[in-house]
């Protein structure tokens, strides 16, 4: 983890190289505080253009002042340069090992609307709702914020020249109280402070819980030689034995955000809205009377079926989370345990469908193993279904300016063209638009190529061949549709924009009913 970089990229990355040479490679570099400074952009341009490259996968928080807002154009995060990713305004990053990192960019603002470099009580509340709504919630592995939490010095060792009763954010104190991070990193005060670990439970009143370590880091290359890098090894909470996880360090203190008169209110939680059951919408697609499907998609043998684990929830309204009131449920044509199929609105054809996760995931890269498994099952089932109807299917995903994963599945009649023609059309049109579309190994996983938070576009052909583009700046939102609608493939160029292809709700309902009926013989969710 690293404190304020303030544009000193060479100093930071040279130091990281030296540490890695001595101690071996690390997995991630997490930067809190001001990543960009008031220095000229010449040094940054070398990284942005690829002349220089960060030696480690680096994740950074967003702006803390108006001057640096210009570097962070995408609220949901994006790749800033090779190996350097902006996480976004707020959210959860889950590593491939299951390590859970919660991040909140900017400084505190108590008024709405907030500026591009601030967060509000609403932002903190939505993060809390996303994570703390389930009874199984124990805490998170890492919390990244730029400001310190207010009162963090209570009951602890001296915080030096920083007065924690006056400095920092009370909203972050509240968030840390709720999320119970094992590590909490912050910066901005140009000071190094490793607080003694503190408890997340009340002794003799609550079961033992893990301790939190708060570490504030100084600015990179500071003249006082204050510590700005902190190296640590962590096993994800979900992989740890409970007894090992809750073992208390000998120097543990009371929780700084509790029991201190006026500070007592910090720990009070904003009420969390009731979550809708994960199986709430598993009811209207099975038209056979007298037969109910359990939430696993199989016949229920037990009068008390086991409740499924609740899927991830969105921070706000989402058009594609199945439990959301915004979903156009008449377009839903099949529901599995972790994913569902829906007809595309304004589809390229009557059987253009989307594979969507039931819970809130932004991209394929962020899916859990069980969701990936069901996505693959839907993909192979749809290939068989369309092959039976004299068609091959093309899949594509655009993880750019989208909040919920939509895996587009477009059938192409075998009589139209060969797979090689489709591949050539994508490559040719990409070259015409200066888009670098690379072929990746057939059995490789997108997760091996794209990091969570990175923007990308990828196509999968019926042969298993995959084409991938890492989005660095702008990308045409309709690119996938435009290629498939072109004369080289479906020859319906007038349908390249979905908004030009919309039909009435009644017509959509007819198409959905027809697809459900045709798909039923292939429906793996009905298997006993």
TrEMBL record:
Domain Cwf19-like C-terminal: from-to ranges: 312-415
Q: Which SUPFAM superfamilies match?
A: HIT-like
Q: Which GO terms describe its molecular function?
A: RNA lariat debranching enzyme activator activity
Where is it found, in Gene Ontology cellular component terms? post-mRNA release spliceosomal complex
Q: Where is this region: Disordered?
A: 250-269, 289-314
Write down the Pfam families for this protein, in alphabetical order. Answer: CwfJ_C_1, CwfJ_C_2
Q: Which InterPro entries match?
A: Cwf19-like, Cwf19-like_C_dom-1, Cwf19-like_C_dom-2, HIT-like_sf
Cwf19-like protein C-terminal domain spans which residues?
433-525
Homology family: Belongs to the CWF19 family.
Any idea what this protein is called? CWF19-like protein 1
